[in-house]
Amino acid sequence: MPTLTIDGQTIEAAKGTTLLEAAQQLGIYIPRYCYHPNLSVSGNCRMCLVEVEKAPKLVTACSTEAAQGMAVLTASNKVKAARRDVLEFLLINHPLDCPICDQAGECGLQNYYMEYSLAKSRFNAADKVRRPKRRAVGPYLALDNERCILCTRCVRFCSEVTKTSELEVMERSDHSYIGLKEGTALDNGYSLNIADNCPVGAFTSRDFRFKQRVWFLKKTPTVCLGCATGCLIEAQHNENVIYRLTPRPNAETNTWLCDYGRMTYKAVRAGDRLTKGVIKNGQIDLKPALREAAARMDEARRSAAVLGSPWLSVEDNAALARFAKDALRTENYCFDFNCGQGIKDGILINNDPAPNTSGVKPVKAACGGITLTELSRRIAAGRIKAVLMEARAAALIKDALKAAGPRLIVFAANTGEIPAGAYAALPYASYFETPGTFVNYQGLLRRTKPPVEAPEGVKPLWAVVNELASCSGTSLGLDSVEETLKGIYIK
Amino acid sequence: MENILLKDNVAGIEAYVACGGYKPLKKALGLKPAEVIEEVKKSNLRGRGGAGFPAGLKWSFIPKDSRGSRYLVCNADEGEPGTFKDRELMLKNPHALIEGMAIAGYAIGAGRGYIYIRGEFAAEAQLLEKALAAARSKNFIGKNILNSGFDFELSTHRGAGAYICGEETALLQSLEGYTGRPRLKPPFPAVKGLFGCPTVINNVETLAAVPAIIEKGGDWYASIGNGKSAGTKLFCVSGPVNKPGVYELPLGVTFRELLEKSCGGMKPGKKLKAVIPGGSSTPVLTAEEAWAVKLDYESLAASGSMLGSGAVIVIDESQCMVKLLEVLARFYHHESCGQCTPCREGCGWIEKILNRLEEGKGSAEDIDTLYSVADAMKDRTICPLADALALPVMSFVKKFRSEFSAHAAGKTCAGSQRIEVRE
């Protein structure tokens, strides 16, 4: 364990720690562009140069390992001059199109210029190197080579994380540029991480571009429900509209976020968002829809069934279980889901497409019920007249439904989810709009924090269940989200 | 004194062997590898590629306990403007290089060697291939060399035309099939070089000196030259002198002696203005400085320049320093690999300023910018390519500022002779 000093502070660093990491441990920030904690070190931007006493030249903090007795200076005049110079070099061929650049407000060039330079520009418009601008590269990204500082984070991301190596530095000298290798497209399922990693406005998200200035965005930490991995994310939103999802890097689950997960927010304001009730394909107000659904369930009573859903939170599953047991008093309910979970692509995407397979287990433990196979058997045998469930869960019993065709009453957030032939559909608030508890494939508890409010009149699923019960004269007593979890033990 | 490296009529293997060639290899194979390294250390042989690092010391950096392959690479990517010595050496005395490599390979425990030769040297590469075949047929390279049990396979690899591949780690990248861009150091090649294995990289001239050192002893070699600058050096003289060319002389020879005795002095009517003593990337010397200097590592360092590759570029009064520097800047701008920010952006910036000054459209402020840009590039990059332009710029501006000022003021150029650059 070498002991060294950084700006006069002593630190004992673990063997192999770089100066940049050691400084970070002391709370000293060293500016960097090419360095990324989750990518290999390339040492080419030269922004992190620091002074090591007795060393003949400044060294890159990102690549230099801490050694016994080193005296490191991160804010000496020599270091400050080097930072100013590197910034000037980076800016000299930069288009300075900040007013129309989407990165403005979260740009490494803007921020560092303010922090470390403020030098007068010696920029000569006639000297500027011109490069291709705003090209679409793949379904999610736009590339502006003129804004690029060639830090190669994008190149390393594609070769080290997705191992697809679509990007490469083409040419050399100041005519070098980031380019797509011939015959490839930048669509590797994780491409939007490149926009996050890009410290400048070279790679921007085609989905997010020009939608919102970043300084207007509020950030809410929440959870991605795109699959069982349960990545921690941040929803960025303004005036009740979500604009993008970004990863919240953490040691347990995720550094990155997949493109599919990033787009999950779009369902919230999609054209097919369900805000009213649906009876026989016709949209009607929620109240009469609820009454109709309740009447049909009442009619079936003991030959009605309730199916939980691995796409729903623990709370909403628990409410459904209460409805089956206390309102319908049927034995035909199932909260039994199993899926071979695990990361299927070596990065983030899970074999289990549902976010809460693990989280339904405590509901089953508390409320019992029959197995999915048994429920399918009973439906196929024609013993079930009506099924209440979440729309996507229909896929789990689709063969049985095909065989018998009971009346389906489903909860759906978007009409696109409603299975063909459903008798009624009831809207509910998505987990971007209401809190929910989930358990990911690692058994880690994940609680969503709603960044936005649900459309008017759209309530959390557990509350809709509560109303459904009241329509048929049963009080489930679900007055709050906490109430739903009574008797449910989550590890 | 007799030449050690540049000899006539030894290009063929029969002639080379007839003059005692490959006897040093046999001798070396009878010694322990450590003894060979010791002899080279004793000789004070230093890297002839430009940096002047002691060769024996470099060899001894190979970790003793390293398992697996080790490599020996000869840097024959001679690309420094003004330098044409390795080419001459390979043409005239290819077996000295091959023998030197076999000895070095034995010393460091490498079973495989590569000669990375500049892409443009097509004829030289062909000739080397022939020489390699001849050496192989006589078992000087290959399996169980001269029944010693030592295997050493050696082949050539042609570059694809990038100056940067003369930088040893860019060379390794290129040899591995990647784009030639220098690697971060550490780790140094001695620890993690070609294909991740311990590797020694030496210049052609360095390796070609090894057989003579083994034959006559390190002490003998160390006695030639000037103290720490031991042995002979190939000087490539270009410019308006009567007899430009490659000359082998002991280190420590005066510039005056090189110019007047070897090169027959300046061409009639030409007066010395400046000298770039060690290839285009070394700081320029004024005529006054040059006349006083000895050509060896220490003396040139003391004069503020470098021995470099030994490429002595002679500049006379009729030449324009601004134009000359512009040519250099164009070269380095073109050849920068583009990895490090200061070099990528700085080389082009410098060239553009010089374009303006040369065309009479520059300003006095441009001269200061020129100097400060060079200063901002210096010592701040992965490899020395940025310095290779920064140092000449700073020395040109410092020592010949009046010419730059005349350009900035739109006056007639101090030198009348235009330098035409072929595209």
Query: Within the largest sheet of chain B, what's the order of strands?
Result: 8-7-13-10-11
* Count of helix runs of chain B: 19
The count of β-strands of chain B is: 13
What percentage of residues of chain A falls in helices of 4 or more residues? 25-40%
The percent of residues in helical segments of chain B reads 40-55%
User: What is the radius of gyration of chain B computed over CA atoms, rounded to a whole number of angstroms?
Assistant: 22 Å
Strand order of the largest sheet of chain A: 15-14-20-19-18-16-17
Judged by helices, strands and strand pairing, the structural class of chain B is alpha/beta
Oligomer: heterodimer
The chain-level structural class of chain A is alpha+beta
Would you write up a description of this structure?
The complex is a heterodimer of chains A (491) and B (423). Chain A is an alpha+beta fold and 491 residues long. Chain A has helices at 19-25, 77-92, 108-117, 153-161, 192-197, 259-262, 286-300, 314-328, 357-367, 372-380, 398-404, 461-471, 481-484, and strands at residues 3-6, 9-12, 49-52, 59-60, 71-73, 135-137, 141-143, 167-170, 177-180, 203-205, 218-223, 232-238, 241-247, 277-279, 282-284, 304-307, 333-334, 386-390, 407-412, 424-427, 436-439, 445-448. In chain B, α3 (33-43) crosses α6 (94-108). Chain B has 19 helices and 13 strands. The radius of gyration of chain B is 22 Å and the shape is globular. The interface between A and B is medium-sized, with 34 and 27 residues.
